[in-house]
Amino acid sequence: SLAREVDKGTLTRLRLSKMSSFDLLFGVFLVWALVGAVQVLLLFGAAAALGFRWEGGVVNLALAMGIGCLAALASVALGLLVAAFARTEGNAGAFSTLITVPIAFLVGAFMQMPTQWLADLLPWGQAIRCMRALLNAGAPIQGLVPNILWMVVQIAILLALSVFVYSRTRLRAE
Question: Does 173 score more than 60 pLDDT?
């Protein structure tokens, strides 16, 4: 959506208003975070409708959904970083695919990969590890707290980097 705003020239008009960079980026981040949360709910609903049976009861399912929402926040932060460099909306889509498909393979979203050490460096790898432990093994949350905290730190770093880069490339005065 931010790449589209650049494409249409809306971002230039927004920079002329009294709106701060924080207002714009927080608004965009909030909307896409809510969209991500709805996607997580739909994904788990579809999985349950197709017969997915999880371990650990409703509590583990709710925790896994919360972790999925954190992963969605990481994806929104990554999208902001992509939008900082994309010149058009089409470029943003191409860059996003070029980045997300390899990440999905690296973190083992499709199958276990021998790159677990690399997956641990990315918030999506932590999310997959935690959701598998909760839903496939019925693991208690206490054993996953370090992974979740590390994922939150990773997301905060990614978001701070994305906001900094986007502000420098798109929101500076011309």
Answer: no
